[in-house]
Amino acid sequence: MLLEIITPDKNVFKGEADLVTLPGKSGEFQILKDHAPLVSTLAKGNLTIDNKGQKQTFLVDGGVIEVSANRVLVLAEVVK
User: Residue 41 is part of which domain span?
Assistant: First the structure.
């Protein structure tokens, strides 16, 4: 699935992902290929991308996520 991570200042990441783990306001959750459409808010925490066994982690500080048609869009306030 295609993952994009965007902040007000820049595009942080754009690429394929097999699994995305995110910090939700009510706890951590994961997105896999063919996930149902979803809109959710994000808390401060780690966003982990797993693609073909390679992991990459970013620290996000709030934002929202939209999932639709194997496209995951993360609009984050701050990404480190």
Answer: 2-76
Q: How confident is the model at residue 60 (pLDDT cuts 50, 70, 90)?
A: very high
Q: What is the pLDDT of residues 17-54, one digit of tens each?
A: 999 999 998 899 999 999 999 999 999 999 999 999 99
Look at the chain and report how many structural domains it folds into: 1
Specify whether the CB–CB gap between 56 and 73 falls below 8 A: no
Q: Which long-range contacts (CB under 8 A, 24 or more apart) does 24-33 make?
A: 31/1, 31/65, 31/67, 31/72, 32/1, 33/1, 33/70
- Confidence (pTM): 0.94
Domain containing residue 71: CATH number: 2.60.15.10
DSSP state of 52: T
